[in-house]
Amino acid sequence: MSIQERNNVHSSGAGSPTIVFAHGFGCDQTMWRYLHPDFANRHKTVLFDLVGSGQSDLSAYDYAKYGSLHGYAADLLEILDEFASGPVIYVGHSVSAMIGMIAAIEAPERFVANVMVGPSPSFINDGEYVGGFTRSDIDGLLETLESNYLGWSSTMAPVIMGSPDQPELSVELTNSFCRTDPEIAKHFARVTFLADHRADLARVTTPTLILQSSDDLLAPLGVGEYMLAHIPGSTLSVVDNVGHCPHLSAPCASVDATKAFLRQLGLTDHG
Amino acid sequence: MDSEQRPLSSIDEAFERAPCGLLATTVDGMIVRVNSTFCGWVGYQAQELLEKRRIQDLLTIGGKVFHQTHWAPLLQMQRSVAEVKVDMIHRDGQKVPMLINAARRRHADVEYNEFAVLVVIDRHQYERELLRAREKAEVALEEKRVAEEALREADRRKDAFMATLAHELRNPLAPMRNVVDLLRLKNFADPQLLWARDVLDRQMVQMTHLVDGLLEVSRISEGKITLRRESLDLATALKYAAEACQSIVAAASHTLTVALPHQPVFINADPTRFSQIVQNLLNNAAKYTPDGGAIWLTGRREGEQAVISVRDNGIGIATEHLPSLFEMFSQLGAGLERSQGGLGIGLSLVRTLTELHGGSVSAHSGGAGLGSEFIVRLPLSNEPDATAASHVPDPSARNATRHRVLIVDDNEDAAESLAMLLQAEGYDARTASDGKTGVRLADEFSAEAIILDIGLPDMTGYEVAQAVRQSQSGKSALVIALTGWGQKQDKQDAELAGCDFHFTKPVDLGRLLAILAGGSVDPAA
Question: Is the ipTM of this complex over 0.90?
Answer without folding.
Answer: no
